[in-house]
Amino acid sequence: MRGGGKPQGSEWILGLMASRPVLYSMDISHYGIAADRMLAFKGVEFDTRPVPYHDKQELIKATGQDYVPTLIWDGKTVTWSEIPDFLEGVRPTPTFYPWGQKGLATALEHWGHQVLEERVWRYVVTKVPPVLKSDQERWVFEEMQTRARGPWHVLEMRREEFRQDMNKHLGMVDAILDDRDWILGQPSLADFGIYGSISPLLTVGETIPPEFPRLGRWSSMIGKLGR
């Protein structure tokens, strides 16, 4: 460009073709919240399309599949498992992998989603229906979770047991943050995966337990990214 004028040639055409990214997600999806924070960290401006728990018709029509989160980027469908590496490719800085520690960051992200999130989810699952947006969505949620986890009243009765187990795992993350602001010392994929895994606790209106002050500060920093 010259003199602040309009971009010329192919650059101008690409500018017209570019569209604002869209993230199909759910507030109760730990992968969805992780993807939201990844986009914020990368400085990407995007729109969010909420996907009801009981109705994925719009998602399927737009993306051809029924998993959230799904990112639409300039017409390309990026599924949940592809989002970190896709974003790292299109926005290399700031990186998800400080000091080249992709393996470690990815392993910790995986631990968050596969181990920590289950401990959090068991504790909060009976508190999720009030945050859903319709009676139909709430009914389907309770039906599906009951089929997977057993009677609702038993889940509610075991909440103290689940809380203690959750806190053991939250304490592990708090200990990692003993002498640092971020899991690996700098923001990484590990932070966003683990934050997403903890996010159901925040979604239902609870807070990080006060016995984990480092975890609380870390969670607040990630939540404020891009805001």
Features:
flat, alpha+beta, 55% helix, disordered N terminus, 4-stranded mixed sheet, 227 residues
How does this model look, in words?
With 227 residues, the protein is α+β, with helices and mostly antiparallel strands. Helix 2 crosses helix 9, helix 5 runs antiparallel to helix 8 and helix 5 packs parallel to helix 9. The N terminus is likely disordered. The chain is 55% helix and 7% strand. The protein starts with 8 loop residues before the first helix and ends with a helix. Strands 2-1-3-4 form a 4-stranded mixed beta sheet, with helices on one face. It has 10 helices and 4 strands.
Helix content: 40-55%
Per the principal axes of the C-alpha atoms, what is the gross shape?
Answer: flat
Distance between the termini: 31 Å
> How is the largest sheet built, in terms of strand order?
2-1-3-4
Number of helices: 10
The largest sheet, given as strand count, sense and whether it forms a barrel, is: 4 strands, mixed
Q: Radius of gyration from the CA trace? A: 19 Å
Outline the low-pLDDT stretches.
Answer: 1-17
pLDDT average, as an integer?
93
Structural class: alpha+beta
Number of beta strands? 4
Q: Could you give the order of the helices and strands?
A: HEHEHEEHHHHHHH
Q: What percent strand?
A: 5-15%
